[in-house]
Amino acid sequence: MSVAFFGGTFDPPHRGHLGVARAAAQAFDLGTIFFAPVGNQPLKPGQTTTSFEDRLAMVALACEECQPEDTGKHTARFVPSAIDAPQPGGRPNYTVDTLDRFRREMPGEQLYCLVGADSFLSLRQWREPGRLLALAEWIVVSRPGHSLSDLSPLGLTQQQRQRVHLIETAHFDISSTWLRERLAAGDSARDLLPESVARYIRDHGLYRMSSSAGE
Question: What is this structure's pTM?
Answer without folding.
Answer: 0.90
